[in-house]
Prephenate dehydrogenase/arogenate dehydrogenase family protein (Polynucleobacter tropicus), 604 residues
Amino acid sequence: MKSNLGKRMTIINPASNYGTVTIVGVGLIGASLGLALKKAGVVTKVLGVGRSKENLDQALKMGAIDGVVDLVEATKQSDVIVLCVPVAQMRAAFEVMEPHLESRTMITDAGSTKGDVILAAKEVLGKKACQFVPAHPIAGGAQHGASAARADLFQGKQTIICPLQENSPEDTALITGFWESAGSAVKKIGVVQHDAIYAAVSHLPHILSYALMASVVNSEDADQKLGHVGAGFKDFTRIAASSPEMWRDICLGNRAAILKELDQYLLIVNHMRKLIAENDGAGLEKLFNKASKARQDLDASE
Amino acid sequence: MKSNLGKRMTIINPASNYGTVTIVGVGLIGASLGLALKKAGVVTKVLGVGRSKENLDQALKMGAIDGVVDLVEATKQSDVIVLCVPVAQMRAAFEVMEPHLESRTMITDAGSTKGDVILAAKEVLGKKACQFVPAHPIAGGAQHGASAARADLFQGKQTIICPLQENSPEDTALITGFWESAGSAVKKIGVVQHDAIYAAVSHLPHILSYALMASVVNSEDADQKLGHVGAGFKDFTRIAASSPEMWRDICLGNRAAILKELDQYLLIVNHMRKLIAENDGAGLEKLFNKASKARQDLDASE
């Protein structure tokens, strides 16, 4: 199954078996991936690497993983390694893996940002970077940890692949098939494009949502306000229940694209502020109309 | 049922009948109210006043109203009048009603802002302002118009009453019972408090949501971005599908409180921008933690 261009030996069985798969970071995404792969019957064994014994025990109990190892041991044993840790921990993971990484082993990830992860991979893995096919499964939710995992988390969802120049077509196809076997529809996008798109439609909304909760919580009459929230407020702030650690890393990892989107957003908000302060009803209605129509079109296009 | 303190004659039947009720503005809220009151069996007749023949015909067809009249005729005939028009139209409605307003008639409203509506009522109705008991049903959704109406729209939801100094306890109790018969749980809050609370938990989120849709739609790669939205973006922007006209009026009607909340919000967002630009992971995590915990507490308190 793997490319045999004189670069690496073919070890993994053809088509539907990825052999020994290690999941590094067995949280919502990692544990769900383990459940999905085992349910699809495409793995011989799933190993887990992580920081929290309690969480790993939970993952074992659920059958998301079959055993727990450290990352060095996992690197030696695995055919595929999936990095599901917060993006700021990817560099350290590559550093531990690199000396033990054999040519048969493929690596992929589940990071919400790609530019920073790819930079770390190229700097640390060097020539072995061709063994890393970057991915971003668009799945998950506000809950975190193995206890929230589901085998169908990726069903009907998209996984973005951002192949490196160094990746062979065969290796890209292998990792594409890997994510497809978990239930995803795979789509290829360039890394710069990926980071700009997700800055706008995912990273920025999370920041704005956190900011609204923080603003309400910090106000004098916070309790009163929180006692009168409706469906609109709850919809808007739902994503503020997400993992602070993960989102801290995303903000720093995709800093340039996020700041660009945030600055564009602030231009619009400040313009709205001006229209409100100046009593410009026609201006407000025009802006709201454009936004409202676009949001309705979004629902219609589903 | 009405106070008989020598001010007005008691005409309305005691307890469970509000007589002839007119709904001015037969949209989602107005038509739903008509359906709810009729289902509860607490009215003799429901009349509708509005701008759009098509919408009024729809309301008639659904049984939300029994007849259509103009506002002058409605004022003469009604025991209770409910103003369900956008808040910027309330003043004009009071102006049409005032000369024909008899002492037996109570008025209430469904406006999302209270300070501006109350000011208009006091200026236009003068001594008759005691016949107006301001209300704000916290119900509804992104859809608008009679065709979206439901008899159970207010079931289990709150209606805020902001009694005027001029309202007698008996009249406040009557209007409280009126909204309760539609299915609401009624709560009394002072008008300044109301406008501050709803600026924070309703008006500001709508503005921020409209701004995000506008920002994405205006960008160079808008189509790409809109092609990759996930559940988070959709949750965040759901309220941007709301009625632009209604939200224009709310922004202008509650301007002072909204600008206050918006400016506090912008302080937080600009602080987050600074943390991101300066790579301050610890600062970001601390802020996200506080917000995340508050959001989880909100779910837990339901």
Observations:
- Confidence is low (pLDDT under 50) at residues 1-14 of chain B.
- The longest strand of chain B covers residues 20-24.
- DSSP finds twelve helices and nine strands in chain B.
